[in-house]
Amino acid sequence: MGYPRKLTRRFRAFDNFAISFTIINIISGIFSSFGFGMGAGGPRVLVFGWIGVSVMVLFVGASMAEIASAYPTSGALYFSAGKLAKRHRGAWSWYTGWLNFIGQVGGTAATDFAAATFIQSFVALQWPSYHPTAQQTVGITAGILLVQALANTYTVRLVAVLNRISVWWLLIGLVTIVACLVAVPSDHQSAGFVTHFVNNTGFSDAVYAGMLGLLVTSWTFTGFDGSFHMSEETVRATVNAPRGIVRAIGYSALTGLVLMLALVYAVRDYAAEAAAEAPPVQILIDALGLSTAKLLLLVVIGAMLFCGLANMTSNTRQIFAFSRDGAMPGSRLWHSVSPRTRTPVKAVWLAAACALVLVIPGWWSHVAFTAVVSVNVVGLFLAYGVPIFLRLRLGDGFEPGPWNLGRFGRPVAGVAVVWIVLSNILFMLPQASPITATSFNYAPIALTVVLVIATVWWFAAARRRFKGPVSYGSPDEVAAMDLI
């Protein structure tokens, strides 16, 4: 790919799969956004929306996997966009990289914000005198980001081990939660409850409210580009990285549907549970009792912390690669690698700081979580869509890698692009009514600020020096430069 090797290939096939499976993290995604879905469509959208969106995301993931096999680098999306563009390669690469950056920062921020919320729910259950506040949530989020940044700085090998453990934590935790929800309650909702529709968004249009509920599934299925970003640290990356992407999506879709159904049918008092501070926690309490609910809540919190850690690791690799080509302020600083761990330590702290900036509005906004989720979904899926669109436009000129879709590559890419455009328009729109300063969806503002900065910088200076991914020489010359 034209780069001297700085990163150690310590990720096997399972490790590469684990990074995306952990970031998708069905337990974290479903539990953190289930309450929003209860008001935006209810069981009908939660279940059937999960199935429909999962299929669409699989189209996106398969197209990305095909590109990952052809261009297995840490730069991933922005690198492949620069290589697939016919003209203006620097501009395509530039904007893809910035969208990927803000989307990944949003993923880290939203996951850790959700973890902070659930930690407070656990503390409130354990000590009833404790009353969670928005300010405490932001403070706990900052503490989580600090710990995850320290882990990525000083215990890199441990992070790799934790990513492997996280897969089993998710699977065993899923089985435990589902088994409890199925076996313990004396009765469940009737079979037809799955078609129950609810609109508590404040908007009178039921269709619009139901479409907003699709955010639950879309938020869960983000971050599978992590396998792509870890390519330079994965053995046989041209095969293992694309397999990691597709397997992570497929396994998450199936296991997530089981968990979604278990939660939906365990509902006892829909109105009261939907109005609770943390609706899925209240469902566990009502269905299983306080003691069991607290134990399972620890499983959920652990899954969220694993997810946030993997998010930060992936985010850091994207920053490293983007800076390596001189596309970020202070690029020389962010793409430097620690001689001890062979990882981009300074990029870790930039990722943590940017994630903290995104959650600060949670100090006063009660829709901060869904806004950060929208930043995550829109930023990432737009970044996913650019190289897929360019691959589609390139037609037969695309040179696939060992893992490819054959003659189905272009139709699959076409479906992926259409879904990305439609879903991203939806998630930029208001998510609660009436629209006030505290209920405003600030995702468009956050994305606009980033794109305006990127555009001003592009036309002021970057377009004259940034031409897309940099090549450091021929394969033999680059091999001689390898730092490992």
Short description:
The chain has helices at 13-24, 26-39, 43-70, 76-84, 89-126, 134-154, 156-183, 206-212, 215-220, 226-229, 237-265, 270-274, 279-288, 290-324, 331-334, 345-359, 368-394, 409-427, 443-465, 475-481; strands at 40-41, 198-199. With 484 residues, the chain is mainly α.
Can you tag this structure with a few keywords?
about 475 residues; two-stranded antiparallel ribbon; globular; Amino_acid_permease_CS; membrane; transmembrane helix; AA/rel_permease1; transmembrane
Description:
- The longest helix is centred in the first third of the chain and has 38 residues, at 89-126.
- This protein has 484 residues and is mainly α.
- It is globular, with a radius of gyration of 22 Å.
- The chain has a two-stranded antiparallel ribbon.
- It has helices at 13-24, 26-39, 43-70, 76-84, 89-126, 134-154, 156-183, 206-212, 215-220, 226-229, 237-265, 270-274, 279-288, 290-324, 331-334, 345-359, 368-394, 409-427, 443-465, 475-481, and strands at residues 40-41, 198-199.
- The model is unreliable at 477-484 (pLDDT under 50).
- Helix 1 (13-24) packs across helix 14 (290-324).
- One of its GO terms (biological process) is amino acid transport.
- One of its GO terms (molecular function) is transmembrane transporter activity.
- It is a multi-pass membrane protein.
- It is found in: Membrane.
